[in-house]
Structure formats: C-alpha cells, structure tokens
Amino acid sequence: MFLEQGIKPENHFWKYLIGSVFIITASFIGQIPFSVAVLYKSFVEKTGFPTDNDAALKVFEPNLTLFLVMISFAFAFAGIYFVVKYVHRQTLLSITTTRKKIDWNRIFFSFFLWSLFSVVSFFIMYSQAPKEYIWNFKLVPFLILVVIGTILIPIQTSTEEYVFRGYLMQGFANLARNRWFPLMMTSLIFGTMHILNPEVTKMGYVIMVYYIGTGLFLGVITLMDEGMELALGFHASNNLVGALLVTSDWSVFQTHSIFKDMSEPSAGADVILPVIIVYPLLLFIFSKKYNWSNWKEKLTGEIKETDIEAKEFLNSN
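Structure tokens predicted for CPBP family intramembrane metalloprotease (317 residues):
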C-alpha cells in the first residue's frame, strides 16, 4: 500500500514535474556556498576558475570540499519537505513508509548488514592485492571526516532516497497506476543520474549496470517492505563506509579515508557481482526476516481503485 499513499485525484503528474524542478532549484541554491568559495579562492590566488566538476572538487582539501558539497543536499531535503507538504498536501511520513512511524530498527539493521558486508569484502580484496592499496590514515583529518560524514552523508543519501524511492515512485504510480513502471523509471533515472561521475569516464558505461542495478534493488526492497527504511539504511551505509574506508584519485570524492586505492580502475567482476549475486542474497535475507510474500503483485501488479479506497479508509480511522 506504499504507492497508494500518494495516489489522489488532485495529485496530477504535472505537480510532480513542478515539484521536481523546485527540488532541483533548491539543490542549486545549496551549491552557491561552494561555488562562491571556489570563485573567491580562484580570485585571491589568481588562478583560473575550474573548467569542470572534477577540477572544482580538488580546489579545497577533501574535508572542506565534502562539507561544502553536502550542504546542497540539506537545501534539497528542505525542498522535498516543502513540495510534499504544500504542493501535494501529504506528510513526509506518507512518502517514507506505510507504518504508523518510521521503523528505525529496519534502518539500523540494513545499515549494519551492508556495513559488515562492505568491510569484509574490502579486506578480502585487500588480502588478494595488498600492493594496490596504501595506508592513508591521518588521525585528525580522519576524525573530522567521521564527524562531517556521520552528520551530512546520511542527509545526502536520505535526500536521494526521498526523491527516487519516495516522491518520484509515488509520482509515477499516479501516472501509470501500476507498480512496475514506477520501479523501472526510478531505477533508470537514479542510474543515469550518476553518468557524469568520474568512475564512468574511467571504467566505461558498463558501470551503469551497477548504478541502475542498485536503483532497481533499492526500489524492490521499498515496494516489498511497503516503506523505504531498508533503502535508507543501505544507502547511508554504502556511502558512509565507502568514504571512511577507501578513497582513490578517480572517485567522485577524495576523502581522508583509512586506505587509498592506487590500482588502475576497470569494470570487472566487482561491477557485475553485486547486481547478480550480492543483491539477490540481500533480498533473500530481508525477505526471510520480514516475511515478504506476493512478490509478483507487489512489484508488477496494477494499482486498483479498491486498494486506493481501502488505504484512504485506513488513513481516516
């Protein structure tokens, strides 16, 4: 019933288009501090203004860059709240979950499960090719990274989840009145959103399989669990643990992480395996823990008027 919470006669799809423009605009406003800081430093040091995003991200030391860039997501999240409340007349809870309140146990379970897998898999790769990694740990910069990352990275990942698995998924459900179209569209848009990442330039477009596959996985667990708590926990873990554990010169962000990957990037098994093996394994674990059933209907079924009426009746009582 998660998608049904956003389906209302007054929720025309054009409202979601306007809402998306508003959220993107809020994000651009949030990028002003970073742009002004880069412009100021370029002026003071009499260096040219960076001509591309990769160069701009290297103007400041990594912790300051991370802080300035993450601010934009706080603005975007405020934009989501405004649009949901005043354009669609919904609560933030209604695009989060079907439960009476957010289930933090689900968020923490998903977070720690993926954190455990990420750490274990990294050290397996490290043991196989230790010469490709160098020790990058510096206590004070790392502690600052922990503080910035712990506060701001969950805001970044939650903003993306609220946009794709919450707002847009319900928006496409209003348009199509089924479940498969919102699932596929949000997965494709989420994946292509990463197309400008430097990882794509280094590894080629085959890495889009990973990005789109990750979007599909997050959409599936949201629909099957009737809420996006598991997706919130997974996404926060993926970005935060990655930022703290290992960095590289070719990743979208360089951080004061514990290790630095010195290998030449290539799209191999590490791109395909999560999509075809790891994500299905996680789906199995989640399905057993939370007793998921009726997969075909929840992922591909039509949204019937009786379902919408039943949801409205439950909300009114």
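The CA atoms of residues 263 and 293 lie 43 Å apart.
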